[in-house]
Write a structure and sequence with these properties.
With 218 residues, this protein is mainly alpha-helical. It has a single domain, classed as Orthogonal Bundle (Arc Repressor Mutant, subunit A). The chain contains six helices and four strands, in the order βααααβββαα. The strands form two sheets. A two-stranded parallel sheet has the order 1-4. The relative contact order is 0.12.
Length: 218
């Protein structure tokens, strides 16, 4: 479903209670469906997606609505239930008070829940490959790590370039996708290594005068 013309660009959460509200496996799965695909779903459809009853799912949906993450969509003639939709194009989480214990704990729970979903998906691919049940797109599945040396500006440009490419292929944007195209879940993580607090070439503390490391000169 294409983005709505009047749709806000972003929903930003910084209240620890709101962050905790979305840090639930069932809620994250529904948010993926609403935000990543732009779909509108009823409570019954959301419940079927995560294996919950419509009444149980309604509780979760109202909790998300309370924090402005989702909203009711206009009723359609062919639906008895009024569907739910995302409240903006993208969902962003920011800690407004870095020293806040509750905010950091809530963010930790959210990150753990989200990454656990990625871990399960990767494990399912590995299981299919190991049992000979792999599908063609499994060949593209990857989990790679690298340490690169970049300036802050280069990092911003790199990530913007990668994300721009992803946006062009995003399911709700790609109306001309080939007939054999399938959906691929992409997670992007980029964080400074611990030593990034020091400029390159200054990884070690200066030695006291008259002292040096290593053996004595010959």
């Amino acid at each position: 479903m294409a983005p709505r013309p009047d749709e806000p660009a972003r929903v930003e959460l910084n209240d620890p209670r709101a962050i905790r509200a979305i840090a639930h496996p069932a809620r994250l799965a529904v948010l993926d469906e609403l935000y990543q695909r732009g779909n509108e779903l009823t409570a019954t459809e959301c419940g079927e997606l995560v294996g919950l009853s419509a009444s149980a799912m309604s509780y979760h949906l109202r909790a998300l609505e309370r924090w402005g993450v989702i909203e009711r969509a206009p009723s359609s003639a062919d639906r008895r239930e009024r569907p739910w939709r995302r409240a903006g194009r993208d969902l962003t989480v920011r800690i407004s008070e870095p020293s806040s214990v509750s905010a950091n704990l809530a963010t930790d729970v959210l990150v753990a829940s989200s990454m656990d979903g990625d871990r399960r998906a990767l494990r399912e691919v590995l299981q299919r490959v190991a049992t000979g049940a792999a599908v063609p797109i499994d060949e593209a599945a990857t989990y790679s790590r690298a340490i690169i040396s970049v300036t802050p500006q280069e990092a911003r440009e790199l990530l913007a370039e990668v994300w721009s490419r992803i946006e062009g292929l995003r399911s709700e944007n790609r109306v001309d996708a080939p007939a054999d195209a399938v959906e691929l879940h992409v997670s992007l993580l980029a964080v400074p290594v611990e030593s990034a607090a020091k400029p390159l070439g200054q990884d070690h503390d200066p030695e006291p005068d008259g002292q040096h490391q290593g053996g004595e000169g010959q």
